[in-house]
Amino acid sequence: VPIGAFGALMVNAGVGGARAAPGCCGMIGDMLRNLLVLLPVCAFWLAAQPAEHRLTSTAETVVIGYYDAAAKPVLRIRSGERVEITTAMVAGPEMLEEAGLPSEQIKPSLRAIHRQITDRGPGPHVLTGPVYVEGAEPGDVLQVDIESIRLALPYALNIFLPGLGVLPNDYPYKKLKIIPLDEDRMVGEFAEGVEIPLRPFFGSMGVAPPKELGRISSAPPWVHAGNMDNKDLVAGTTLFIPVHEPGALFFVGDAHAAQGAGEVDVTALETALTGVFRFTVRKDMRLGWTRAETP
Prior knowledge:
By secondary structure, the chain is α+β, with helices and mostly antiparallel strands. Helix content is 17%, strand content 32%. It has helices spanning 3-12, 24-48, 93-98, 108-116, and strands at residues 53-55, 62-64, 66-67, 75-77, 82-86, 126-133, 141-151, 155-160, 175-182, 187-191, 194-197, 201-206, 216-217, 225-227, 238-242, 250-256, 273-282, 291-293. The chain has a 6-stranded mixed beta sheet, with no helix packed on it. Strands 2, 4, 6, 12, 14 and 16 form a 6-stranded mixed beta sheet that branches. A 4-stranded antiparallel beta sheet has the order 8-9-10-11. A hairpin with a 2-residue loop joins strand 10 and strand 11 (194-197). The protein is globular.
C-alpha cells in the first residue's frame, strides 16, 4: 500500500478524530491483511538481492595480527549498505602443506598475502578490511546484520601445539589435520565414520579500537569486539558494536566451519568463509560493550 494512500485510509478510519466513511472499514481491513501478507515477501526479496559491494581477501585488502585505527580503509560504504566479504584462511601455505594439503588446493591469493605482507601485529589472524562506514562517529553504535554465511573452501584445518590448550600435558606435541568439508551435507569428514556438523561463523569481527591504544593484538577480544570466537554468532545474528573512531573501521576474519564451546586445543575447524553483512550506523544507541542478538 502506498504510504500516502495508507495514511489517508488511517485518517478515514478515524485516526486523529476523523470518522470512517461508510463501507470503508471492510476495504481497510482487506488492505491491511494484504499488507501483512506482503511484508514477509518484501523481506525475503530484500534478503535475496545482491550486495552493493564485494570484498575479497588479497594482499591489498587484509591485515595480519592486529586491529588499528591507523589502518587504511579498503572500502567505503554508506550506512544501510550490504557487503559480501570473503575472508582468508588463518594458516599460511607452508602450514597447510605440512598438514598434507596438495599445493594446488592452496589459493594463489593466500600465497601472495603471506609472501607480501611483512608488517604484522602480534596476533595470528588474517583480517579483511577495514571497511569505512560513512557517518559513523565515536559514541555511535555500528549495527552489523550477518545475513548469510557460506563456505569458501572445501577443507578446514585443526591444529594443536605443545604447551597450549586445556590438555597440554596429555598432548605435548604438535599435530595438524586437514578436514574435508561437504557443503551439500554440511558436515566435516574428520575420520572414517566420524563427521562433524558444520555451523559456520566468523571468529573475529570488530571495529578499530580508540586511536590512543595504537595497534593491538588480534588475539584477545575487548572494547572493539574482535576475536570473540562465539559459536552462536552464525548467519541471522545482529551485532551492536560501539564505535571508537570515525567510519567505525570494521574488520572480519578467523573463519570457522564449526567449533565447540570454546577452542579446546586453541583452534576450531579453521577455513575461509563468504558472508553478507549489512552495516547500519545507530545514532540512537549508546553502548559500552558489544552486544549480539542471535537467531
